[in-house]
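Re: that chain you flagged

S.,

Sorry for the slow reply, it's been a week of failed gels. I finally had a moment to sit down with the sequence you sent. For the record, here it is as I used it:
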Amino acid sequence: MGANRVIYLAPMLRESHFFEDSFENLLRRAQEAVADLRYEDALTQVLHALKLAEDAGDDLQQSRAHAKHSRILSRLSLYAEAVSAAYSALRFAGNDPAQGADALGALGTANQTLTPPEGHFKHYDEMLAKARQAGDASLEASAVRGMCIANLMSHQKHFHEGRDKNDPAMLSHASEALRLALEALRISRDTGDERSAYLGQHLQVGALIASGDLAAARGVSEQMLVTSSATVWVAESGSDRAIALKHLGDLDMLDGRLDDAESRMTQALAICESHRDVRKAADCFTVLSDISERKGDYKAALEWQRRSFDAFMQFASASARAHASATAVREGAERARAFAALQQERADRLEHSNQELALEAKRHASAALQDALTGIANRRCLDTELAALMNDRRGRGRCSLALLDIDHFKWVNDTFLHTTGDKVLRRIGAVLRECSREKDVVARFGGEEFAVIFVDIDPLEVAGACDRIRRAIADVAWSEVQPDLTVTVSLGFAHFDEAGGDVDELVKVADGRLFQAKRAGRNRAVGP
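Prediction finished late last night. Pasting the structure tokens below so you have them in one place:
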């Protein structure tokens, strides 16, 4: 994206005051814009800086500009584009250890959402080695914080897997996270970097909570609150005081002090809203919804939930405006899908206490990106994903689309009634999830048709993947659903590169091959 965007801006550069400005001033103004949450202005400044660096042929300046660009994109949750910019920074850094460490730091931030935490440790070890080689304490502290975050993410992953809190792996990650947070804090304080020290305390609280030491976590959070009230840089940064309040609110919830938690979160929300920090405001809305639900006020819980969803969508819209790209659409779709799933889960919990409100929340969530009957993605989600992946010219060469149609489905409905037909649709949705990888997109295309987008796959492997799906559906114990019932599917698949960048053409090609599979006798897959 970077090179194309810079070329696009070149004519404007010659007509603006940026053309005469210095590289350092442009990066400084970009950082000031980030602190003030003016991301569109920040992107403009950093891309002008990158153009100056390219004109000068200065590799290290290009690396710095790409690294800054990557960090801004990560702030906007455009992680795929951020990874691309970070790799450009790493390439231009060459053998310079300080700039190499800076580029690795940008890459680590971008990758935190895209890759499993286990893959981050080697990455931050390399960053730490380069930072020490360069003698840069700030980069060293940043690398240590990255390793701390990786441990906290691993701890959280084990928690969601249902492991016991005394599981050795969880205890190890919690204790290592605490050690690293304290080490980062020490390095920052030794160099007088108050801002980095505050970030170290932020991680220290997370590590203490993971370790189960809530009293110590509260003590550090209260120190952060005092610091945030008296320090200029915190006020300038916008919502850092809100971080301390949110920590204390989380701890109040863990202690069962719901009124105190609600008061803290309301204060944090007011700060986020006053600084136009929509993303952090969305987090506050979510926590306030949880608090209201625990207090039994389900109407308030649903209203906070709605405001959280609206705030997230506002953030996604601002991100798209700041950086109009296919990746923005794709990331927005992924996060909206996650948010819809969260709404669905909460709606289920609320249903027992207030059926009418729960059903309303469920309709709201289902209308977003999920098919109500099968629980998989709906056509709207599929179309969004197809458009985003098709626009990603670098990645679409390893993407394919398969369309599936249930053979003789009308006979199933006519013979066993539509209730059995619905059971068949749900079971096939479940089989498709089981046969697909996490990165693939499984959706209901419409009626008895389904679709699978295979992402990042060798085109030669798609035929085998489709045949595995076909056999898995045929092998289901359908007689348990209805005696004498058998179900098979026909598939047609096409590779993205066959469509010349046109989604409609891709669907048309895959649908044509599905028709060929039907005419050839059904229960088969047809590809190129």
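What I noticed first: The beta strands are 400-406, 441-446, 449-454, 489-495, 525-526.

Talk soon,
D.
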